[in-house]
Design brief:
This protein has 16 helices and 14 strands. The strands form three sheets. Strands 1, 2, 3, 4, 7, 8, 9, 10, 13 and 14 form a ten-stranded mixed beta sheet that branches. A two-stranded antiparallel ribbon has the order 5-6. The chain is α/β, with parallel strands linked by helices.
Length: about 525
């Protein structure tokens, strides 16, 4: 669900990438290992599965009939040996005979270590759980037809990363070979090519739609796909994390990136003057963060007291935090502290994924939060709905458990290093916006749509704006990059108004019209 953020060894990554072009042949040794797997460790089948069911959904006064396919894609190494199985659910609308190929969009969440259940069940599939900021007590949070589905504009394939959902390795010892920036993207490159191959979709317009860490994956995968002969038409980034250097100790970028989100959150909760609109207040925060605030932090402990106090006063007026608190914090307030501090007087804490959500904790005097009310509000309805839906409606049955999040702490074992488009392997602080820029230069017809939420503290929108503006695109390609921000959080689709706005903007993007 979250967008956090790093490849096993470079050789393993290259092997996986090479496997994207490998022949599909079942290896006898892999079959033997599957047969010997203890019952306590239920592994996915090596042979690819696919279960098709027929459905329809009403959208804008018309009925769309479609096939839902739940199945697996077998991933192989460079020698053709089956190594892992990636689970997917595809929605393909009926196409009249002789009609042009429909677009196909590959969607996924991130983590690392998150399945794609959130995008699948709460955004643009033909069915949706109506979770959101407006879902109060008594609201029926059950799966229902989704009038905001994108099926009218594109077929959709929801993919679960290896180690999540029903996606897994055949040999438990080989999981690490998929858990890192480059091998993760290599596995998606192979899976996408495999889906295109077995479904005859090579001539379809092709898009990637990643949320959170899924945007990191999209940036790397776009370049890998280009090198593997897959010409993408576009990439949709929702709640992006592209440059991990913002987390580096000793730098101020993390603090700067958060200020406009703090300002939006304070405006929403009535902790600042609401004499101006949300957009106007956020714009003031942008100018402050990139101007006086950046200059003040750059001076470190040499910042004069008078200048510090003046900057603290400006920041207090924007963020709702007290001048004294800001001075005590040396003008640097990290998200967990902001979430605890803004509504401390009311005994409430803000959500991280969406600061509009609030909750209660046992220790009101603590400096940091211990829960995320936004995540707590949606987990139960989404998970229970999906587990019913996949068995009852999609008729997909397996003895495997569905891992909403990886049972392993992938953040602790993830290989955060990355081989950039030009240069040597980086250690931890990858900037994958450079991969995205390289993919755009190599494929000048490919367009990028970036979607961000004002109330997202996990992947702040100001960070995305900064990273995209530092891709150093030539002027001829800058028109291929479009950015939209919404009065929503990390999962922008968690309220009806934002869901419809995003639907309209993505629809326009997919149909090559300007965003609305």
């Amino acid at each position: 669900m979250r967008g956090a953020v790093f490849a096993p060894r470079a050789a393993a990554a290259l092997a996986l990438f090479a496997a994207a072009l490998a022949p599909a042949a079942v290896h006898a040794e892999a079959i033997r290992r599957e047969a010997d797997t203890p019952a306590a460790e239920i592994r996915p089948p090596i042979a690819e599965r696919r279960v098709d069911t027929r459905h329809s959904v009403a959208v804008d006064g018309r009925t769309i009939t479609y096939t839902a396919s739940a199945g697996t894609l077998t991933l192989r190494d460079g020698e053709g040996l089956a190594k892992a199985s990636m689970f997917y659910v595809a929605y393909v609308a009926d196409r009249p005979k002789g009609a042009p190929e429909r677009p196909v969009t590959f969607l996924y969440n991130g983590g690392p270590g998150s399945s794609s259940i959130w995008l699948h069940m709460a955004s643009f599939a033909p069915v949706r759980v109506p979770v959101g900021i407006d879902a109060g007590p008594g609201t029926a949070l059950r799966l229902a037809p989704n009038p905001a589905t994108l099926l009218g504009q594109t077929d959709m394939v929801f993919l679960d990363a290896i180690g999540t959902g029903y996606s897994d390795v055949f040999d438990p010892e080989e999981g690490k070979s998929y858990w890192g920036h480059d091998p993760d993207s290599a596995s998606f490159t192979q899976a996408i090519r495999r889906y295109l191959d077995i479904n005859g979709r090579w001539q379809s317009p092709k898009y990637l739609f990643g949320e959170s860490y899924g945007t990191t994956r999209s940036a790397i995968t776009a370049l890998m796909l280009h090198k593997a002969g897959v010409q993408l038409d576009g990439i949709i980034l929702m709640s992006s994390i592209l440059n991990f250097a913002q987390h580096a100790p000793g730098l101020d970028r993390m603090a700067i990136n958060q200020v406009p989100t703090y300002a939006a959150s304070a405006w929403y909760h009535g902790k600042v003057d609401r004499g101006v609109s949300l957009d106007a207040h956020v714009e003031k925060a942008r100018r402050f963060a990139s101007g006086p605030y950046t200059l003040a932090l750059a001076k470190g402990h040499d910042l004069p007291d008078a200048e510090r106090d003046a900057v603290a006063a400006q920041m207090a007026a924007l963020t709702g935090l007290s001048v004294d608190y800001l001075v005590q914090s040396q003008l640097r307030v990290m998200p967990d502290r902001f979430r605890k501090e803004l509504l401390r007087g009311e005994g409430r804490v803000l959500g991280e994924l969406d600061t509009r959500f609030t909750g209660y904790e046992s220790d009101d005097a603590a400096s940091d939060t211990s829960t995320d009310p936004a995540g707590d509000a949606i987990k139960g309805p989404v998970i229970s709905s999906f587990l019913t839906y996949v068995r009852k409606d999609l008729n997909y049955r397996t003895d495997q458990p569905y891992h909403v999040s990886s049972p392993k702490n992938l953040l602790g074992i993830w290989d955060w290093s990355h081989v950039p488009p030009r240069g040597e392997k980086q250690n931890a602080m990858a900037d994958v916006a450079l991969d995205l820029a390289e993919a755009m230069r190599r494929n000048p017809e490919m367009r990028v749509l970036a979607l961000n939420g004002y109330y997202d503290l996990s992947t702040p929108f100001f960070a995305t704006e900064y990273d995209l503006s530092h891709m150093l695109l030539p002027k001829a390609l800058r028109g291929n990059l479009t950015e939209h921000s919404y009065a929503s959080g990390h999962m922008i689709y968690l309220d009806p108004q934002s869901l419809q706005q995003v639907h309209n903007d993505v629809s326009a993007f997919l149909t090559r019209r300007s965003g609305g």
